[in-house]
């Protein structure tokens, strides 16, 4: 009997040891999963984030041969983004650099010699202005700066939050003519002829910069990359196994966050969303977002969000802003006229609509 | 006599039924060892909280658990783990409140960032590898 008892004790100890090892293995493997890449063929998946550029969260997911290769590629991407950020910044000066703030500061005074990246952006912005019938206008800085000031003050002192006077907005709107932005390619200069005009490239800069950076990465040999610049998503290629990237769109309303509204199968494309949920302030119980309709000079309020899918990230960014400022029927007609552009609207009541081709890219839940 | 005693002792330790039992239990234990991590991993995602690029806390989004917490040394930001298996920035002293207004996060691919405080919540798979049917990113 003693022997059998001993045997049982041995078995119990053995089992406990095995189970403890199993638990330890669970922890070890979970820890490894958080820090180790996911292999796909010869390439491995790596991710990194940064909060240093464009006042946004930057996420980089790419497939590389090894960690060293990933570090090298992601560092180049982040450095590239920092460069674009500094050039397109309208709030801060950088030693030895002429950026858009420099251009604004010299409005009506003299042309400013700038980097080709600024000229390229402004030329692209003029095309976008024509495409969107002025709904996306980088020369609206004088109006947007008033809203920016009132929003900052309202967030700092919510009890005293106010709307800008319409007279002030209308006066500023007389200084938003994009033809006053004179680009001299030969001398690499930009001149704002109107002393009171101001550039604000917030509706296009992130998307445009993301596009340029991804193109640079592609030229350097990157084949499989997802770059998100504050929710402006640009994917390069598919995953190495040929599967598409999956980009989910969620209702921005805090009351309805449970369901993902759509999942996009993305290959060599961009998805950019304009929404009302993050950057806003509250006056007398009403929320006022940061997307200002050039026609009304007030925050656009047709939708919770509008997402645009098209290959060029700058185009997606600009069109999402323009469509956010259009009533649905107008926006639908506008969207259907664009080549290779798909749109997903989320209305205030949570209902949705999409262009015909959008459905092919999605799996609805 | 000596040999007989040894045979008797051997029989006591290793009866046929005992051997079958031991083998059976060893297989069950090994099965538990191999499957437990996968069972525990399940589909429940994990929230990673970063300060800058440094992973400072990992929270399993297990349903039924609620917790309001701060990170060590960062008292100006409060996080909340919700019973339905989500996490959020509950309170922050940042001026724009974008992190708080992002709301609850529960799905793989979701993120919320508090730029002024250099904090990030990122929802990742609890399993060991990102799968092709996991969203790579979720936007609002």
Q: What is the fourth-level CATH superfamily of the largest domain in chain A?
A: ApbE-like domains
How many helical stretches of chain A?
Answer: 9
DSSP helical segment count of chain B: 3
The Cα radius of gyration of chain A reads: 25 Å
* Rg over CA atoms of chain B: 25 Å
CATH topology of the largest domain in chain A: T-fold
Quick structural overview:
The complex is a heterodimer of chains A (365) and B (140). By secondary structure, chain A is α+β, with helices and mostly antiparallel strands. Chain A contains 9 helices and 17 strands.
Task: Give an overview of the whole structure.
The complex is a heterodimer of chains A (365) and B (140). Chain A is of the alpha+beta class and 365 residues long. Helix content of chain A is 38%, strand content 23%. Chain A has 2 domains: 39-90 and 222-363, Roll (T-fold); 100-192, ApbE-like superfamily (T-fold, Orthogonal Bundle), CATH 1.10.3980.10. In chain A, helix 2 (67-88) runs antiparallel to helix 7 and helix 7 (205-219) runs antiparallel to helix 8. Mean pLDDT of chain A is 89; it is low at 26-36. Chain B has helices at 2-13, 16-41, 98-101, and strands at residues 46-51, 54-60, 67-71, 74-82, 86-92, 111-114, 119-124, 137-139. Chain B folds into 2 domains: 2-41; 46-124, mini-chromosome maintenance (MCM) complex, domain 2 (Sandwich). Chain B has 140 residues and is an alpha+beta fold. Chain B is elongated. In chain B, strands 2-1-7-6 form a 4-stranded antiparallel β-sheet. Chain B has a 3-stranded antiparallel β-sheet with strand order 3-4-5. At the A-B interface, helix 1, strand 2, helix 5, strand 9 and strand 11 of A face helix 1, helix 2, strand 1, strand 7 and strand 8 of B. Strand 9 (245-250) of chain A pairs parallel with strand 8 of chain B, so a sheet runs across the interface.
């Amino acid at each position: 009997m003693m022997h059998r008892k001993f045997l049982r004790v041995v078995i119990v100890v053995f089992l406990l040891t095995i189970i403890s090892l199993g638990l330890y293995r669970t922890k070890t493997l979970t820890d490894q999963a958080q820090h180790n890449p996911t292999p796909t063929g010869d390439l491995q998946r790596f991710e990194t984030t940064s909060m240093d550029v464009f006042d946004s969260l930057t996420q980089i997911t790419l497939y590389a041969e090894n960690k060293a290769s990933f570090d090298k590629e992601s560092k180049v991407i982040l450095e590239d983004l920092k460069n674009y950020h500094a050039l397109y910044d309208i709030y801060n000066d950088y030693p030895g650099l002429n950026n858009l703030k420099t251009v604004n500061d010299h409005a009506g005074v003299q042309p400013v010699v700038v980097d080709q990246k600024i000229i390229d952006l402004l030329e692209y912005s003029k095309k976008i202005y024509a495409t969107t019938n002025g709904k996306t206008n980088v020369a609206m800085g004088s109006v947007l700066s008033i809203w920016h000031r009132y929003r900052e003050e309202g967030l700092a002192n919510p009890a005293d939050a106010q709307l800008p006077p319409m007279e002030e907005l209308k006066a500023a709107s007389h200084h938003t003519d994009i033809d006053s932005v004179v680009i001299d390619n030969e001398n690499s200069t930009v001149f704002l002829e109107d002393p009171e005009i101001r550039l604000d490239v917030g509706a296009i800069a992130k998307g445009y910069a993301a596009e340029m950076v991804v193109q640079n990465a592609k030229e350097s040999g990157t084949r499989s990359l997802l770059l998100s610049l504050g929710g402006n998503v640009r994917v390069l290629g598919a995953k190495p196994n040929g599967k598409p990237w999956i980009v989910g769109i969620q209702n921005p309303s805090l009351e309805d966050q449970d369901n993902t509204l759509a999942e996009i199968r993305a290959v060599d494309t961009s998805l950019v969303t304009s929404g009302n949920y993050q950057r806003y302030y509250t006056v007398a119980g009403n929320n006022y977002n940061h997307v200002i309709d050039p026609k009304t000079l007030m925050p656009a309020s047709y939708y919770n969000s509008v997402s645009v899918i098209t290959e060029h990230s700058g185009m997606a960014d600009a069109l999402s802003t323009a469509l956010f400022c259009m009533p649905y029927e107008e926006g639908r007609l506008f969207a259907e006229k664009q080549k290779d552009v798909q749109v997903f609207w989320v209305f205030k009541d949570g209902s949705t609509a999409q262009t015909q081709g959008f459905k092919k890219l999605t799996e609805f839940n | 006599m000596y040999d007989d005693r040894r045979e008797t002792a051997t029989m006591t330790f290793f009866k046929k039924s005992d051997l079958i039992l031991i083998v059976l239990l060893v297989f069950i234990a090994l099965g538990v060892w191999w499957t437990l991590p996968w069972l525990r991993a399940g589909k429940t995602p994990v929230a990673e909280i970063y300060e800058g690029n440094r992973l400072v806390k990992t929270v399993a989004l297990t349903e039924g658990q609620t917790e309001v917490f701060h990170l060590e040394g960062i008292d100006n930001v409060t996080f909340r783990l919700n019973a339905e298996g989500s996490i959020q920035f509950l309170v922050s002293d940042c001026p724009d409140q974008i992190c708080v207004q992002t709301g609850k996060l529960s799905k793989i691919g979701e993120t919320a960032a508090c730029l002024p405080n250099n904090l990030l919540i990122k929802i990742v798979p609890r399993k060991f590898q990102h799968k092709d049917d996991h969203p790579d990113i979720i936007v609002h």
